Amino acid sequence: MAKYTEVSDDTMELFEKVLNSTTINQDMIRIKILNCETEKTPMKIMKANDLVSFLAKDATDIIVIVNENLLDLLQENNTEILLDELLSGIGYDSEKDKILFIKPTFNSYPEVMKKYGNLLLNAKETVRLLLQQKEDEAREAKQAKLEAKKNKKK
């Protein structure tokens, strides 16, 4: 069974620094960070279920689990970058009053990243924007078609 502990003051300070630099509404999304020395990755994120949220003395929506032993092997700026990336996956749908985990929009291979660097990032971002534009256009066309159908019935 995994043993969870509170994180060190240094990790908590870095976590709060990164969290405060994000756009996460901390009044709507409550995040708790814990240490687990048996965690196989430096950090992961999970949604707290209703029972955990109820039992927690300070209501919790999201739990960030870190392995401080692994984090200690990284340079602080790398830990900060990884935390920022991890927290960037948290979103909130105000219409549905629901916390979301947003999937990353970018995957690649280390060799390709080394070869092209920012050029690859720019190309991937261009593709993402083009796909988003196509989605928006399809949604607008569908909406226009539905409205035309409604108007035709009247």
List keywords for this structure.
single chain, 154 residues, alpha+beta, Zincin-like, 2 domains, 4-stranded mixed β-sheet, two-stranded antiparallel ribbon, 6 helices, flat
Give the topology.
Layout: E1 4-5, H1 9-20, E2 31-36, E3 43-47, H2 50-55, E4 62-66, H3 68-71, H4 76-87, E5 90-93, E6 98-101, H5 110-116, H6 118-153
Parallel strand pairs: 2-4
Antiparallel strand pairs: 1-2, 3-4, 5-6
Describe the structure.
The protein has 154 residues and is an alpha+beta fold. The protein folds into two domains: 1-102, Zincin-like; 105-154. It contains six helices and six strands. A four-stranded mixed beta sheet has the order 1-2-4-3. It has a two-stranded antiparallel ribbon with strand order 5-6. Strand 5 (90-93) and strand 6 (98-101) form a beta hairpin.
Brief rundown of the structure:
This protein has helices spanning 9-20, 50-55, 68-71, 76-87, 110-116, 118-153; strands at 4-5, 31-36, 43-47, 62-66, 90-93, 98-101. The protein is α+β, with helices and mostly antiparallel strands. The chain folds into two domains: 1-102, 2-Layer Sandwich (Zincin-like); 105-154.
